Amino acid sequence: MSQKQEMLKEREGFASRIGFIFAAAGSAIGLGNIWRFPWLVGAYGGAAFLAMYLIIVALVGITMFMGEVALGRYAQRSNVGAFKKVNKSFSWLGSIGLIAGFMILSFYSVVGGWVIYYCFRAVIGFNMTDPTLTEQLFVGFISNPLSPLFFHALFMALTIWICYNGVKDGIEKYSNIMMPALFVIILILAVRSLMLPNAIEGIKFYLVPDISKFSAEAALAALGQVFFSLSLGMGSILTYGSYLSKKENIPNVSLIVPLMDTTIAFIAGIVIFPAVFSYGFEPSSGAGLTFVTLPAVFSEMPLGQLFGAAFFFLLFLAALTSAISLLEPLIAYMIEEHGWSREKAALIIGGIIFIVGCFASLSMGPLSGFKIGGLVFFDQLDWVSNNLLLPIGGMLTALFISWIWGTKNVLNEVTNEGILDFGLGKFWANVMLKFIAPALVFIVFLTGLNIF
Ligand code: PFF
């Protein structure tokens, strides 16, 4: 197939609204919800973080999500091209997102590799009711110089392979089954976790805010997590929006997907925190929280081996659908703007990301002494992309959509040229997108960096 035909084929886009919802939910729901969210809640003081997270989702997340979908669908282009179509001198804005996506995928695929390893490990059965053992297992695995690299390679190879083939249908088809399955399993785990002794302590930590824990630094982390979890600020949702049919209801899908994503993250917290407190873990123990507490829970529960294996397998699929959406905008950019073939773009860009990811993986073990600004390379990639690039890119995108493209145009797109009745439309465009969301991002961003 020629490149042009392939691009036209892609532009046919999603067959149905459900197709878009599942693909966008596949992008949004991933390691961010189950691994990163509870880790940050634990590190930044529990319920206070949750409260800030929910406020930011409501004020910034949903607003931005709708803006990105609208811009993508209007432009019928992916990241850089969409900005260019509205105003030629703003294509650089799309590049910020591309850099963020590149950095995120470099460490995301390392964690994706951990998940694959845990799938196998869960099939054998963890049999570790003593949580210090699950901790040793996790730390021992990620600091090993070779095995995490092998699984990182496997995860990245799968991501590249799917993007290489451009097979969105396949992944979409089984996301339609896997996403609901993940939801059911995580609900079962939540019930199980709530039945553990001392579960109530975890619930208090998670749901009753401690005022002293509100901090600018935590708000910045919550802001970054909202962008990360909703796949905003780097063109994934914009690119998927460009595949959405002109007949679809943008406000409707822009509410459903963030709600689904937030629900899964919220339930992940209900799974993790009662277990953390029940087993006497430190909630602030960081990136390993999920990988340490859940195996202990699985070891305790009836049919734990089965649930464990199913859980990590579904988490792997959720991670894979997100990883594809991280690589796709980079590939689409190379195809659209530089005339590369899909195959070449997938292999070369994916290959470079794999190499950078190797250093991220090694920074958990042999290279852990090598720190930049007090953080190992893995954490540095995470911090710079999520706390700097996504918020800056996201804020500028909101300003671009509302001030440069203009609220009249964006409203026109969102209401399908005035056909749809979107009661809050004017408020959304003229107040939320134009002022509130960018101002909030700006304030949180500056205070979080200790600039004020
Ligand atoms: N939203 C994904 C998650 O929560 O795991 C990660 C992600 C995907 C971030 C795509 C950014 C993105 F563009």
Task: Report on this structure.
- With 452 residues, the chain is mainly alpha-helical.
- It has one domain (3-448): Up-down Bundle (Amino acid/polyamine transporter I), CATH 1.20.1740.
- Helices cover 78% and strands 1% of the residues.
- The protein is built from 18 helices and 2 strands.
- The protein has helices spanning 3-12, 17-28, 31-43, 47-75, 79-86, 91-124, 131-142, 147-165, 168-194, 199-207, 216-229, 236-241, 250-278, 289-300, 304-338, 342-362, 377-414, 425-448, and strands spanning 371-372, 375-376.
- It has a two-stranded antiparallel ribbon.
- Helix 5 runs antiparallel to helix 6 and helix 6 (91-124) crosses helix 16 (342-362).
- The longest helix has 38 residues, at 377-414.
- It is globular and about 60 Å long.
- Residues 1-10 have low confidence and may be disordered.
